[in-house]
Amino acid sequence: MTGDRDKMSCVEFQAQLPELVGSGADAGAHPHIQSCELCRALLSDLETIAEAARQLFPVEEPPEELWEHIELAIKSEEGEPGDSN
Amino acid sequence: MPRSRLTAPMRESTSLDLDKAVPVPTQPARRVTFAPAASPDPKQADALARAQAGDHQAFAQLYSLHKRRIYSLCLRMVGNIAEAEDLTQEAFLQLHRKIATFRGDSAFSTWLHRLAVNVVLMQLRKKGLNLISLDEAMEPVPEQSPGRSFGAPDLALSGAIDRLALERAVGDLPAGYRLIFILHDVEGYEHNEIASMLECSIGNSKSQLHKARLRLRDALRRSAQKEAQR
Lengths: 85, 230
Prior knowledge:
The structure holds 2 protein chains of 2 kinds.
Chain A: H1 2-7, H2 10-22, H3 31-35, H4 37-53, H5 65-79
Chain B: H1 42-52, H2 56-78, H3 81-98, H4 108-126, H5 163-172, H6 175-186, H7 191-198, H8 202-229
Helix pairs in contact in B: 1-2, 2-3, 2-4, 3-4, 5-8, 6-8, 7-8
């Protein structure tokens, strides 16, 4: 079985990659990665992207007037208890 | 076995530190240890209790404490300021309607976060994003086939990604890909949670995330090539 994994083509390996990385396994330890520079570069890029994503998108402040709109909507709902629209 | 760098990030705590210790029902080894549902922040707990009893000022206090996180979440998911404002408003309106039903089974901020995600998903469905059709996308099309992700090693990303370029690339992703990428890689949801929220299979969630990352890789490489040609 290990021999089959060693001989896996890049296409075969990449077809398995979503499940491999999605399962939380260490894809870098896969025999194909050990022997294939292209797939190693691909995996490295995907890891870099995933890590960079965690630093993305700073926390944003909503506009001041948003609370006023919410308050109005709440009062409108409370004034019309039977209205579900 | 070492933890993959490609699994969901550990959920970050909010400024309120409310979601630091919710026991995680699935895959506990990968997630932060959350705080018990009982909040360690007495002001927050007090505001929550009063808001549940109908105190409007207390609800305003909760809004003030959570508005940035919820607005930011909406903005990431839809990539549009006006829509993010509308969705934030809808999320807090739903919170107002449902707050009395919060029983403390999870941290309040976790509960609210999930409520907001559901509000966004409902809106996306109304707009015609057929999340179920994501399953159909499992079949590889030529431009997304595995072989296409090859690139010469010298084009590999250097490891120092231009954050703005990545944010732009995420914004340019098709809505379904962006959604899964944001939920998993940015917000830290696991595939089983995403599958449940999007009503798709876990395998589909994994596949779509992978395709999203491949698209981002292509976009970043194009961006880097353009920069190099200048």
